[in-house]
Structures are given as C-alpha cells and as structure tokens.
Amino acid sequence: MQHYHYIFTGSGLSALMTVYEMMISGKFQNHSILLIDENPKKTNDRTWCFWDENDAFSKITTKKWNSALFADAQFHRDLELHPYHYKMVRGLDFYSLVFDLISKQNNIHFLHQKVIDFQEMGKHCVVKTESQSFTCNQILNSIYTPELVKNQSKYPLLQQHFIGWFIKSKEAVFNENQVTFMDFSVEQRGNTRFMYVLPTSPTEALLEYTLFSADLLPKKEYETEIKNYIQKLGIAEYEIVEKEQGNIPMTSYPFWKHNSKNIINIGSVGGWTKASTGYTFKNTIKKSKQLVGFLSSKSDFRKFHKKDKFWFYDLLFLDVLYKRNDLGSSVFSSLFKKGNPTLIFKFLDEETSFSEDLQVMLKCPKSLFIKALFGRLF
To answer: Could you tell me which of 345, 93, 73, 49 has the C-alpha nearest to residue 198?
Structure first.
C-alpha cells in the first residue's frame, strides 16, 4: 500500500482551505499529501459569503458590499459595515484557485474516488476506497456523519437549509451596493424564515429562501416563496440563470471528542461551522490557519481543540431557537434594531471582549436567554 504523511478524506472547503494554508506556509514541501473525494469539484455547487476587513481572497471575490439591509414585518434598517466588507466567493472559483496551486506541487495528489472506511491502527492509519487502500501518518477527515448528532439529545441540532436562484430580471430593481442580510418580512409559519439577497447588478441577484429549523421543507415550498418574493420586488420578467441548495448543520455538539491522536475531524464534522449562524467560510479560514500552525509543531490531534466562551454563547442561542423556533425573527430583530452592526459582526467573528459581549447580548430578549442559561446550569 502506498504511504502518505497526510490523507484528507473528503475535499470540501475545510480540506482545501487547510491544504491551501499548508502550501502557502512553505513548511510542508517534504510531506506527501493525498486528498480523496468522489466529487471532482468541477462545478459551481455553492456560494460562500463572509465579512472581512482585509483583502482575503480578493482575486476570487465575485462581489463585495459596504452596506447591508436587515428587515422584518415592522421595520427595516440600513447597516453600514465599515470597517468590514461583505464578500461573495463562488465555489468553483475557490476550487480552481486551490487545485491550480496543487497542480504545481509534486508532493500533493488528488484521487477521485469514494472513501468507504478509515481507521487508526496504532502508529499509522489506513484509508480504504472502493478499489484501493492507503496508509498514512495522520488523517484529516471532513466526511460528515449526521448520526453523531442525531443519536443524542444533550445538544440541539438545527439545520440552516435553503434554496437559491441566481436570476436576471428585465426590471432594474436591485441595489447592487447593498446586500439584504436578513429579510424576515416573509411569513414565518412557526419557524425562523428569511430571504437573503446578494445583488451583483441592478438586474442580477442571488435570492435564497432560508430557514433555521429542525426539519426540511418540500422543494416546491422554497421555490414558491422565492417566486412570491420576486413578485413583491416588482419583477415581472426574469430568467433563472443558476440554482443552488444547501443544508448546514447548526449545533454545539462537541465533535472534537471524536478526535484521536492521529485522526482529526475538520469542517462541519469538526464543529468548524459557526453554530449560531451557519457561517462557514470565515471560520474555516481561521481554523485552517490554527491547524496548520498546530501541525508545524505538534502531532497529537486530541490537543488541538480549545473550548471557549463563544461555544457556550452559541449553545444557549441554539437552546432558545430550538425550543422557540417561532421567535427567531424577534430575537434577530431585537439584536439588529438598535445594535451596533460593526460590534455585532465582531461578536459573530468571536473577537469581542467580555464587556463587548454584554453590549451585544443585552439587546436580545433577556427572559429567553436567562431561562436557557438556568436550564444548562441546573
């Protein structure tokens, strides 16, 4: 069996971002690396957005905005994002960037196969595909196993699920300088439901009907709501250029407890998704940098994760939203109605001090979160 220093089982965002950080660090040129995935990453299967103060991934940023709109049935507010920019990166552009760099490395290889098993065998690990087996020093796994979370009840699980349409309209109705961050003016129907709009020109935008809830909907329901929203915008004629859909787990389940000395879970199965929002791209940038720094000096993956206050904040938020999913709109509205947008985004980036945390959290409905806190403590 061929042996590698590192094998990535799965080559989604977390795996490719980690390999990208390994390449630009220049510290792993003498380490053999294999990525295995049944998906060749040749299509634009998703869109990522994140807020950023710097020029991260500026070469593949499709669009960026300096302003955002938050709305519900009673009010709307324009959010000035300075010093942040809200950015869009299309999946295919990111895949192309990373795989172009991989093609120039003699030590990194990609195998288009399905992983069927992997395990730690004492001092080495074994990875099996449908037709081959490999050994390695360490495995970085990003293949999500839903049963880990579904087969327990201590940590609530919500889904951020959505269907999005890239449309081109005859009417120029979009403000291309402002993203619609959350529009809760749509019917809630006992859930947390909103529209998310990313305009790239006055006549072009990605519109996503999104829910934070426990259960998915029939496909027709998402698309009916998108059609209704398009009509509400005053658009009579349009074409659908592209469609996308997704389902992101939102949970504070301690995935890191499943790490072993030589196998680490990354991405969604490693808890890299921001549990309270479902945002993935920015968190993955941070986590991959931390992991590459860890690999440069340490080897026991059980020592990588560190639990912090933000993990607990997210846990309380999910407790509230899981038990009272019908109140999601009012919780988010209370936060954004009078809150400082820059401070909120800093808080969601997990970069605030405790005093700043309090400034954000005190904007939320206190009784709901106090009840959740006592539920966790006692």
So the answer is: 49
Q: What burial letters (b/e) apply to 87-113, b meaning 16+ CB within 10 Å?
A: bbbbbbbbbebbbeebeeeebbebbee
State the amino acid at position 190 in one-letter form: G
Q: Are residues 183 and 231 in the same domain?
A: yes
Among candidates 315, 296, 291, 300, which has minimal Cα distance to 14? 291
Domain total for the chain?
3
pLDDT at 184: 98
Residues 263 and 194 in one domain: no
What pTM was estimated for this model as a whole? 0.93
Distance of CA 113 to the CA centre of its chain: 25
> What's the mean per-residue pLDDT of the chain?
95
pLDDT of residue 378: 82
What pLDDT score does 54 carry? 84
| pLDDT at residue 325, as a whole number | 97
What single-letter DSSP state applies at residue 352?
-
Residues 288-346 have pLDDT tens digits of 999 999 999 888 999 998 889 999 999 999 999 999 999 999 999 999 998 999 999 99
Whether 59 is in a domain gets the answer no
Examine residue 12 and state whether it is found in any structural domain, yes or no: yes
Element (H, E) at 80: strand 76-80
In one-letter notation, the amino acid at residue 349 is D
pLDDT of residue 113: 96
**Spatial separation of the C-alpha atoms in residues 287 and 175, rounded to whole Å:** 34
Domain span including residue 334: 309-377
Domain boundary among 285, 303, 321: 303
CA–CA gap between residue 50 and residue 352 (Å, rounded): 17
Cα 97 from Cα 142, distance rounded (Å): 20
Give me the residues paired with residue 79 across strands.
Answer: 68
